[in-house]
Amino acid sequence: MRTDDLIKALDADARSKAMPLSSAWWLAAGAAAVVAAVVFLLTIGPRPDFMAAMHTMRFLSKFVFTIVLAVSAFALIRALSTPGAATGRAMAWMMAAPLLVAAAVVLELFAVPEADWGTRLVGSNMMICMVFIPLIGIGPLAIFLWMLRYGAPTRPVLAGAVAGLLAGGLAATFYAAHCFDDSPLFVATWYTIAIAVLALLGALGGRFFVRW
Amino acid sequence: MSGKDEAELSRLMRAAIAGDERAYADFLRRIAALVRGFVRRKIVQGGVDPEDVVQETLLAIHVKRHTWRQDAPVLPWIYAIARFKLIDAFRRRGRRIEIDVDDIAETFAEPETETVSERDINRALDGLSPAQRSVVSAVSVEGRSIGETAAKFGISETAVRVSLHRGLAAIAKRFGQGRFGRE
């Protein structure tokens, strides 16, 4: 088939319509949040003293970390799924959540006597954390990988990893409402590992599933 | 040249998305020439047929045109897709190349015309269902309109459009997965 012939076929198909990618991303984000919320509420649910905990800095700080991660990953993945879009600034924003966590860890080390560092780090929920963040995040990750297929990521493995970070940020936001371990030492350790698992799965999905 | 090209191509693409088919054909012909120049400059040794990459890029641009934001420049979008498809073509054939992003500004290609040979797209076409293949062939190689194709096969125009759309999407997908019989 000559290229001119191909152009005839493409032109004849000009009227076919698809939802613009940027709108589709918002839809996907909404769907992913619903999926994560349903899984969360059907399994572990929020902790009983949720309202009282809202008045403590450590509890609230967890949401700052996870929401900042989710928002920055959302901005980056939208850019990564659009060919030719600038990603530099969105990449830089990905440093925001880790830096906030690092700052909180330093503050915590000053605020808490050294003898308590170990118990704060190990906490009481690390296994639940490591199971339920990936479990809540796996549905959203599937949605985001499907969205990457709908888009056109020129770096599919990186985009897949960011899909994992986005799913992880979303899942961790819900999980944080359940978990009694509010110390930044716990969050920096176990949340990071659980989210890294999702990022790794996302990178694998990007490698093998996101072809276009 | 790129400033004028950019404005003109963006305008054509916006018109095409709004439903102007002539603008779309014009847009596709212009980017075919640009991408052909780009790809030929990049393929210095054999193994990859530039025209295969041109066709894969055009198909990708078509099936992914919802990823272009109408307020963003269109040329970076086109070249990003062309570069991705070029790297993909080399990867499939077991070669590695590095493409310098900065090269692109200068490479902004002289429009070039096509050379004819056996095409990957023909092999991809062979993988379609018989109905899709005959519709795609009628519209492309035989150059029939949607209405003529519908009359030829005794089906509705809607059915022709659906088969054409699905057929093109299937070809693009096969390209993406590197499945069209050369390996």
From TrEMBL, chain A:
Ranges annotated as spanning the membrane: 24-44, 59-80, 92-112, 124-145, 157-177, 189-210
Pfam family membership, one: NrsF
Keywords: Membrane, Transmembrane, Transmembrane helix
Keyword tRNA processing belongs to the record: no
Protein name in the entry: NrsF family protein
Upper taxonomic lineage: Bacteria, Pseudomonadati, Pseudomonadota, Alphaproteobacteria, Hyphomicrobiales
TrEMBL record, chain B:
Gene3D superfamilies named among the record's database cross-references: 1.10.1740.10, Winged helix-like DNA-binding domain superfamily/Winged helix DNA-binding domain
Pfam families: Sigma70_r2, Sigma70_r4_2
Keywords in alphabetical order: DNA-binding, Sigma factor, Transcription, Transcription regulation
InterPro entries with a match to the protein in the record: RNA_pol_sigma-70-like, RNA_pol_sigma-70_dom, RNA_pol_sigma70_r2, RNA_pol_sigma70_r4_t2, RNA_pol_sigma_r2, RNA_pol_sigma_r3/r4-like, WH-like_DNA-bd_sf
Keyword Metal-binding belongs to the record: no
Domain RNA polymerase sigma factor 70 region 4 type: 120-170
Domain RNA polymerase sigma-70 region: 29-96
PANTHER family tied to this protein: ECF RNA POLYMERASE SIGMA FACTOR SIGD, RNA POLYMERASE ECF-TYPE SIGMA FACTO
Similarity comment: family membership: Belongs to the sigma-70 factor family. ECF subfamily.
The name this protein goes by in its record: Sigma-70 family RNA polymerase sigma factor
Species in which this protein is naturally found: Mesorhizobium qingshengii
